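hey so i finally got around to running the thing on that chain from the lab meeting. sorry it took forever, my laptop kept dying and i had to restart like 3 times. anyway pasting the input first so we r on the same page abt which one it is
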Amino acid sequence: MNEIEQTKFIRELGKEGPEAVYQYFLEQNFITEELVEKIRQASKKDIICSGYPYKKKINRSDYEKQKYDLQQELVKWQNHIKAKGEKVILLFEGRDAAGKGGTIKRFTEHMNPRGARVVALDKPTVDEQGQWFFQRYVKHFPTAGEVVFFDRSWYNRAGVEKVMDYCSDEDYFTFSSSVATFEELLVRSNIHLIKFWFSVSREEQLRRFMGRILNPLKRWKISPTDIASLKHWGKYTEAKEAMFFYSDTPANPWTIVRSDDKKRARLNAIRHVLNQFDYDGKDERRLRPTDSRIVGRPGDLLGDHKLNSDGSPLLTLI
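ok and heres what got predicted. didnt touch it at all, straight out
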């Protein structure tokens, strides 16, 4: 059974209920019984991961009030970007089902679409495969007065392409040794680059996948890549740690957003962006500081980048 056939099979299993899906995942060694038990015992409002700083998800009414306030600030911020002719790239990366797309939707919900674009590229075409790697992304970069949201980005090479062997070792080495220089050139070109990594626990990722598999309206969202992310959790962790090692730079740092509670993640990602800028009418009381338990640098929230004796990254399963 190839990956596409397996995904179709899992979608069909979803019609039989959760236990059928869990049993298949257990038989394939994609997950553990412990993970399944944690999900079974948790309520919808519970945060499953013991390391998350909150036990319950944010109250919806509180979330809606904060979101409304922050979206008013986003409108002011976008007006500032347009008036000043600034160029902004917001880059969203993270594991599958980490909440990237939902956060982008809340950013753009009330922004002027003439000055805000979402870029979510499909796999490269034959022509794009023959181009300089960054070329297909550069053509989507912002012009003056524009904000561009990348729902996944050139860091595909550091994650799924590396883990799934979609690129050669030489291609990966070329990327890892040049991406920091590439991003430094963006800063020198007066482009604001903010890089988000949405960090989700294994328990919460599985719960979200199950929600997709069991819901007929969301079942199509389960892809072969999603299933592979269950099977290769450790490999993706190693790839992520290596990526932070060579691309988390002072000029272009990564910002971690802990997203086991998607609503808290959305609010704090918006706050983080707005706090990077001064703009007319900025309301600090409405904005509020970001929650340092939710948003921070990789070393603060995920542990230091450990090194082997030769100076290479020690790839731990954090």
